Amino acid sequence: MIYRISDRSFIMARHTSHGIETAPMFVVSVNPASNLTTPPENLPDKLRYYRQRAGLLQKEVADRLGIDRNTYSRYESPTRGRYPQEILNALTDLYGLPQKELSDGYNEFLKNQGDKIREKRCELGLTQKEFAKRVGTKLANLKRWERGEVAADRRTWEKFFK
Questions:
Q1: What is the CATH number of domain 109-160?
Q2: Is residue 81 a contact partner of residue 153, using CB atoms and an 8 Å limit?
Q3: Among 7, 40, 65, 106, which residue's beta carbon has the most beta carbons within 10 A?
Q4: Distances (CA, A) of 20 to 48, 50, 66, 84
């Protein structure tokens, strides 16, 4: 259960075999359209929402994923861009959610980024060199993106593929 203390502070409480455990929660930014019953739009907030709804602490989720708590904490950070697909898959299993629920446009783009980049480049009738110049990257980077060896950055996706 989540209990509101003030506008930006809550307490998560749950029953365990050892009694009642609590954990403080503080809202850093508030989206006026969101509430505690509707999943938020952005991925970091979705991760936090489903974790809290399941009554889990970051450390508990991290332990179940087999990763460090600090690593998991960064997944809930609004500055995070790319999420490992295996982590998103494990979280959808943990929370019993459909795969699409814990994704966003950028991370969906990364699944077949090479094909999507090549398709966009051909649609524009540009060579790799011309397209690399247009998106502001080196030709070698574009080639690695098209082969799926390196993830294109979120800024590039937002500007050219969103």
A1: 1.10.260.40
A2: yes
A3: 106
A4: 21, 20, 25, 34
